[in-house]
Amino acid sequence: MQKAEMDLALRTKNFARRIIRLYAALPKQTVAQVLGKQLLRAGTSVGANYREARRGRSKAEFISKVGGSLKEADETAYWLELLAEENILAASRLGSLLKETNELISILVTASRRARNE
Fold first, then answer.
1. What is the CATH number of the domain that holds 28?
2. How much of the chain exceeds pLDDT 90, in percent?
3. What's this model's pTM, rounded to 2 decimal places?
4. What CA–CA distances, in Å, run from 74 to 8, 28, 38, 90?
5. Fewest Cβ atoms closer than 10 Å to its Cβ: which of 44, 56, 58, 89?
6. How many domains does the chain have?
7. Spatial distance between the Cα atoms of 74 and 40, rounded to a whole number of angstroms
8. Above 70 in pLDDT, residue 5?
9. pLDDT at 64 over 90
10. Three-state DSSP class for 92?
């Protein structure tokens, strides 16, 4: 496995851990918990899907699984934005996590494009 793949695997796992900690810190209000569970599901799926992609048996399977990871990352951004826009958590508290989400989206888009062009 290449160093870049290992780095992204670790990065997506650390991202999932940050999402877990954020979920645990959410207020116990119903709206916060409902949005938080969606965030938890999507945010932890980014790394799980990328892990599956790395073990893909074909280029097509890799592209498909990276696409799933990208979909989950985009959904994660959506839930983070809603948490901030509804003032459930301060936007300043979510800023670095949203930045990481957008960076992961960019990386996954690039990985998908490169795989398609190989």
1. 1.20.1440.60
2. 91
3. 0.92
4. 16, 25, 12, 20
5. 58
6. 1
7. 13
8. no
9. yes
10. helix
Contact 72, 46 (CB under 8 A): yes
Cβ atoms < 10 Å from Cβ of 76? 29
How far apart, in whole angstroms, are the C-alpha atoms of residue 50 and residue 104?
A: 11
Q: Which residue has the tokens 């959410």?
A: 26
**CB 38, CB 82: distance < 8 Å:** no
Q: Per the structure block, which two tokens stand in for 67?
A: 């696409």
Alpha helices in the chain (DSSP H): 3-25, 30-54, 59-85, 91-117
Rounded Cα gap, residues 108 and 104, in angstroms:
6
**CA–CA dist 112, 2 (Å, integer):** 16
Q: Which domain holds residue 89?
A: 3-117
